[in-house]
Amino acid sequence: MEKSEFKELKEQLLSTKKNGYDILDAAGRAAMEDYCAGYKRFLDAGKTERLCAAEAVRLAEEAGYRPYSRGMLLKAGDKVYVRNRGKAVMLAHIGEKPLDQGIQLAAAHIDSPRLDLKPNPLYEDSELAYFKTHYYGGIRKYQWVTIPLALHGVVILKDGTKVTVRVGEEEGEPRLVITDLLPHLGAAQNKKPLAEAVPGETLNLLLGSEPVGGEEESGRVKLAVMKLLHEKYGIVEDDLSSAELEAVPAVKACDIGLDRSLIGAYGHDDRVCAYAALRALLDLEETPAKTAVCILADKEEIGSDGVTGMQSAAFDTFIEDLCAAQGAPLRACFEKSFCLSADVTAAYDPNFPDVFEKRNESQLNYGVGLCKYTGARGKSGASDADAETVAYVRRLFDQAGVIWQISELGKVDAGGGGTVAMYMANRNIATLDAGVPVLSMHAPFETVAKLDCYETYKGMKAVFQARSWRED
Ligand code: MN
Ligand code: MN
Fold first, then answer.
1. What residues contact 194, with CB distance under 8 A and at least 6 apart?
2. How far is residue 309's CA from residue 422's CA, in Å, rounded to a whole number?
3. How far apart are CA 407 and CA 343, in angstroms?
4. How far, in Å, CA of 444 to CA of 144, rounded?
5. Which site among 237, 275, 332, 385 is 20 to 30 Å from 454 CA-CA?
6. Which residues have a Cβ under 8 Å from the Cβ of 258 and sit 6 or more positions away?
7. Cα–Cα dist 341/347, whole Å
8. How far apart, in Å, are the Cα atoms of 58 and each of 52, 66, 67, 125, 167?
């Protein structure tokens, strides 16, 4: 075989995935930087699901979206949103085609792993005051000690008054911390398996050390802390029982790497896809052919249950309300709909090659990562998109010039993960997973590549802009 013939045959027959930087032109790179600057602001504004939902609503209103109320008459081009209890948001840009032709949907989640306060959190031990925490989502506990933490959330008083708590974000404000053992006394701890070295009951937030009152009194530091909280927020200890207070890393999003090609932040999972889906929807210049819907859900990290999770009927209710105005049955809408389940995937990490199967991993800078299935132990818990759906997205992304890759999450027997895909697919909506590859996922500080963030945004936009899905 001639050398030229070999080359030709190779190009014709073999996969030619390229590093995105070998594809993206100068204009694309500028647009990527611009997009990522907006994403970093979004991250800093939304460190909890409530804050993230509020920021999404703010951006939506800026883009001309208005609150939806049941019975509202909508026409093509109208833009509406529904806020689900302040913790999830659903947005729709009404399309030209009737809703019985289906919707084009992107679903992402805006909750991230963190440390929630227990219902009776405040205590004093050895003249130090602490909050007890109960971690939320799959964290590696050893990563959450000895880092500066901020506290966010709400306290609802008995009369229903909502008090917003925010400590540790701004320059000059105090931070909270969870202490760890010094190496000098860590010999026994060092011998424990990583998962057991830092027990959940030691994840206690250090709040203060200065007592009030006379030295004959007890509980002086706890009282001093409660006094500060009362002065600042008007709350008493019992009010903490009806509160949602979340400790999150007190870090801001920043560029990572000497070349600034990466972004480090808390909560990329899954605000990186949430922002891509939201921004793509808000940036639609023309009325979409089919109604474009974006859902930013809560509770994914603990199984998508609950009123604000992706399994909640809130989503069906919203779409049914839109359908009812057109006399379209919800089931007809769902069976013709397409959903991109927009959640992060694991990026191949050369520091830990043992858990990855290199031929089937997402790689940084190779674009938005499609996942035909997630799950663990033989695809358990995966919706496993059909080949037709994958083919549709391939074609769509190629036509729109979206840089994409397809992967799994780790070696077959190494573990696995889930997303909201199955909850959409269970509704009879054809669904495919797609998202940004992440390094150190679920850590207090996760890393993603700017190029992949931008390509995910382009992919979401392509879904919303599609004229039709499959052959309908
Ligand atoms: Mn996720
Ligand atoms: Mn996650």
1. 140, 142
2. 13
3. 13
4. 7
5. 385
6. none
7. 17
8. 10, 10, 11, 43, 22
b/e burial code for range 152-184 (CB count within 10 A of at least 16 → b): bbbbebeeeeebebebbbeeeeebbbbebeeee
118 φψ region: left (φ > 0), alpha (ψ -120 to 50), beta (else):
beta
| Ligand 2 center from residue 73 Cα (angstroms) | 37
Going from the Cα of 84 to the center of ligand 1, the distance in angstroms, rounded, reads 19
| Global pTM exceeds 0.90 | yes
Whole-angstrom distance, CA of residue 383 vs CA of residue 372: 8
Strand arrangement, sheet containing 204-208? 162-167, 149-156, 243-249, 114-125, 128-136, 204-208
Closest CA relative to residue 281, chosen from 106, 434, 83: 106
Q: Which two tokens stand for residue 58?
A: 């703010």
Per-residue pLDDT of the chain (472 residues; tens, 9 = 90+): 899 999 999 999 999 889 999 999 999 999 999 999 999 999 999 999 999 999 999 999 999 999 999 999 999 999 999 999 999 999 999 999 999 999 999 999 999 999 999 999 999 999 999 999 999 999 999 999 999 999 999 999 999 999 999 999 999 999 999 999 999 999 999 999 999 999 999 999 999 999 999 999 999 999 999 999 999 999 999 999 999 999 999 999 999 999 999 999 999 999 999 999 999 999 999 999 999 999 999 999 999 999 999 999 999 999 999 999 999 999 999 999 999 999 999 999 999 999 999 999 999 999 999 999 988 888 888 889 999 999 999 999 999 999 999 998 888 888 888 889 999 999 999 999 999 999 999 999 999 999 999 999 999 999 999 998 765 5
Angle between helices 387-399 and 450-465 (to 10 degrees): 100
Report the run of H or E that residue 43 belongs to, with start and end. Answer: helix 26-45
What does the alpha-carbon distance between residue 54 and residue 134 come to, in Å, rounded to a whole number?
24
How would DSSP label each residue in 186-232? Answer: -HHHHTS-HHHHS-GGG-EEEEE----S-TT-SSHHHHHHHHHHHHH
Nearest to 367 by CA among 338, 327, 397, 387: 397
β-pair partners for 446: 265
Residues, Cβ < 5 Å to ion ligand 2: 269
Q: Compute the distance from residue 341 Cα to the ligand 1 centre, in Å.
A: 10
Question: In Å, what is the CA distance from 390 to each residue of 372, 394, 405?
Answer: 7, 6, 11
- Rounded Cα distance, 315 and 300, in Å: 14
Q: How far is the CA of 34 from the centre of ligand 1 (A)?
A: 24
